[in-house]
């Protein structure tokens, strides 16, 4: 356990339903009850303890309990780094983790939010798809509803990938036009993180990401929870039109979209501090509006 002023940080390994070891961490406000629980979903090839540190610290400082988990094949969790055998398994593992936190006696009745970036945004939407009435809202940063054409292999390459993935699924040989790490993160400290996968996408991983993105896109009309979408105007990794499509198509009655001109793909942990300040001011304001105590009308009259 580490305490730094108003924030307490903890790490813990848990077992998923298959008995595999997964890394988790949390940032908690000190000497105050959390306003709500926020579950952080990191992007493909990334991890929690470093990449989500800024987000977790900012949220805990603002009074929220923030939780994150490294998926299998990511960060400090088990599995081959950068390899996704099944995106469905990631959804199942994350739901198992969420339940273990929410069911604790001290968390009974607390509101629950998801915060996901890129592939983590896709994960958040798929989690909502399995638990449509469970969540109180979500913040989606450049969610992977559709992969940008600039980093999508052409149709012939995709066909070859499908064939090879059945034979050599773990091989990292998928050609992409852009260096995803260089194109995603303006902050060099994130680029240099040794717990992040920096090689070419593995064959099965690429197919699972495409499949997950298609599943998310097909399910957009059924999205019903309150959500805030944030997207950088300079993003060349996740298609900006997909965030606009999510905003327009989703069935939610409480939905917001904020664009940040000149910012890159990673608004949660890859931008420079001054840009993160801007983004998180909006995120925390959105959360505060949805966690503020409801004052009865009669009491408002008495107070006034």
UniProtKB/TrEMBL annotation:
Q: Which SUPFAM superfamilies match?
A: alpha/beta-Hydrolases (SSF53474)
Q: Where is the signal peptide?
A: none
Highest taxon of source? Eukaryota
- In this protein, which residues make up the domain named Serine aminopeptidase S33? 33-268
Q: Which Pfam families match?
A: Hydrolase_4
Known InterPro entries for this protein? AB_hydrolase_fold, Hydrolase_4, MAG_DAG_Lipase
Task: Supply the name of the protein.
Answer: Serine aminopeptidase S33 domain-containing protein
**Annotated source species:** Kalanchoe fedtschenkoi (Lavender scallops)
Q: What is the lineage of its organism?
A: Eukaryota, Viridiplantae, Streptophyta, Embryophyta, Tracheophyta
């Amino acid at each position: 356990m580490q305490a730094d002023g108003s924030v307490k940080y903890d790490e813990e390994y848990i077992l998923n339903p298959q008995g595999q070891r997964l890394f988790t961490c949390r940032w908690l406000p000190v000497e105050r009850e959390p306003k709500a629980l926020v579950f952080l979903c990191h992007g493909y090839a990334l991890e929690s303890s470093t990449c989500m540190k800024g987000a977790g610290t900012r949220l805990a400082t603002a009074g929220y309990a923030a939780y994150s988990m490294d998926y299998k094949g990511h960060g400090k969790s088990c599995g081959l780094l950068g390899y996704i055998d099944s995106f469905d398994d990631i959804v199942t593992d994350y739901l198992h983790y969420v339940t273990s936190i929410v069911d604790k006696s001290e968390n009974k009745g607390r509101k629950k939010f998801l915060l996901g970036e890129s592939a983590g945004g896709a994960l958040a939407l798929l989690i909502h798809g399995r638990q449509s009435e469970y969540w109180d809202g979500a913040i989606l940063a450049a969610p992977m509803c559709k992969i940008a054409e600039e980093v999508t292999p052409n149709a012939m390459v995709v066909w070859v990938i499908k064939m090879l993935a059945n034979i050599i699924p773990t091989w990292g040989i998928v050609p992409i036009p852009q260096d995803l790490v260089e194109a995603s993160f303006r902050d060099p400290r994130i680029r240099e993180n040794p717990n992040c996968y920096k090689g070419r996408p593995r064959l099965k991983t690429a197919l699972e990401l495409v499949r997950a993105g298609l599943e998310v896109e097909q399910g957009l009309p059924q999205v019903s929870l309150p959500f805030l979408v944030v997207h950088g105007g300079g993003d060349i990794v996740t298609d900006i039109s997909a965030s606009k499509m999510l905003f327009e198509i989703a069935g939610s009655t409480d939905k917001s979209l904020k664009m940040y001109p000149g910012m890159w793909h990673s608004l949660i942990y890859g931008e420079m501090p001054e840009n993160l300040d801007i983004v998180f001011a909006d995120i925390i304001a959105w959360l505060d509006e949805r966690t503020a105590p409801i004052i009865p009308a009669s009491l408002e009259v008495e107070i006034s």
